[in-house]
Design a protein that fits this description.
Elements: E1 3-4, E2 10-12, E3 20-22, E4 25-29, H1 35-44, H2 62-74, E5 85-92, E6 95-103, H3 108-114, E7 117-121, H4 130-144, E8 151-155, H5 159-167, E9 171-177, E10 183-188
Antiparallel strand pairs: 1-4, 2-3, 4-5, 5-6, 6-7, 8-10, 9-10
């Protein structure tokens, strides 16, 4: 199982109290033990039109999906529309709190509207600083892979993601329109 250890950050829990919360978020490959939580999360994101588990299809064998993510990380037998990428679980104290995809190169679609990094946090774990930590560690992983400028994109109306991207050093390039006609915000870190 691959793991990525980023820095541990302390984030104020609220601005009013400035309580410090120590965070030990780990980005790691998905494992057999993650099936129930990950598939439940994937189904929960369907109404948001956000694929929590990239490439997963209902009824797919979990082990098959894990092997697909490992091949994707290695760049082996990639479908024509995919690039080499790490797809990682974000875990805190053994609990799945989110996920991140770090693409190590861009194809035409990713360069236009997908970006190098895509992240998501489960609704129950939002507004706790996890998204900022996930993105910060993903940026560090991208840098380790030799990417000097990372494109990160979010929907125009997703102010939470825009704030997280800006906290992690994202410079707003400008708005764009995705192929689905929705407005997006493009940032470079």
């Amino acid at each position: 199982m691959r793991t990525f250890h980023g820095t541990i950050r302390s984030e104020p829990a609220t601005r009013a109290t400035h309580t410090i919360v120590a965070m030990a978020l780990l980005l790691r490959s998905f494992g057999i033990e993650d099936e129930e939580a990950a598939v439940t999360a994937h189904r929960g994101f369907v109404p948001d039109d956000f694929p929590f588990l990239l490439g997963y299809r209902d009824g797919m064998e979990w082990e098959e999906w894990i092997l697909d993510t490992e091949r994707n990380r290695a760049g082996v037998d990639l479908p024509a529309d995919r690039v080499r990428a790490a797809f990682l679980a974000a875990v805190v104290d053994g609990q799945l709190v989110g996920r991140v995809s770090v693409r190590f190169e861009l194809n035409e679609w990713l360069a236009r509207e997908g970006g190098h990094i895509g992240f998501g946090v489960l609704p129950a774990y939002r507004r706790h600083g996890y998204a900022t930590e996930i993105l910060g560690q993903a940026v560090a992983l991208g840098r380790q892979e030799g990417i000097s400028r990372l494109l990160v994109v979010c929907n125009e109306d997703n102010l939470g993601s825009a704030t997280v991207i800006e906290r992690c050093g994202g410079i707003f390039e400008g708005p764009a329109i995705g192929e689905d006609g929705k407005a997006i915000r493009r940032y470079w870190i």
